[in-house]
Amino acid sequence: MIKFRFIAPNGPDYAAERMLRWEVLRKPLGMPPGSEKLPEEDQSFHLIASIGKKIVGCVCFFPETETNGRIFQMAVSEEYQGRGLGRQLFQTLERSLIKQGVRDVYLYVRSESEGFYQRMGYSGEGDLINRFGEMYRLMKKAFPQSSQQEIFPTYKEA
Question: If residue 14 lies in a helix (H) or strand (E), which one and from where to where?
Fold first, then answer.
């Protein structure tokens, strides 16, 4: 059974979360361990998905204001890709953000992943940009404020 929970950047699961992000996002680009750590990590929310003691997915959110921020470094371990875990991870994060009053989010996605984020309700903006030798697009989403409960049912953390 998959469990979702937020962890602290200095907590016991943080190193495993960073390793997953490196393995999925940076290692394929030839980047060294440690390249997955960003300056804003300590001020960000870190959501993980775990099965037993193994972290199989994660996503981070950096609040830039009380009502908006940036989602970054979503990673799902290879053996769980294509099973809906990324969608569940994103929906769990979005529900939590809405409960906290966040209204707008954005992220940069690799061009081959745009379809996934479009299905999640994100809209692409502007031209593709080159980051880390890969093409990325800025994508944004505004959460509806009047009908939140209908779109995002109340989430109870385990």
Answer: helix 14-21
- Is residue 53 assigned to a domain? yes
Please state the pTM of the whole predicted model. 0.88
Q: pLDDT tens digits for 62-101?
A: 999 999 999 999 999 999 999 999 999 999 999 999 999 9
Q: Where are the alpha helices (DSSP H) in 22-156?
A: 85-99, 114-119, 148-151
Contacts of 39 (CB under 8 A, 6+ apart): none
Other beta carbons within 10 angstroms of residue 157's beta carbon come to 10
Which CATH number goes with the domain that contains 127? 3.40.630.30
- Rounded distance between C-alpha atoms, residue 46 and residue 27, angstroms: 20
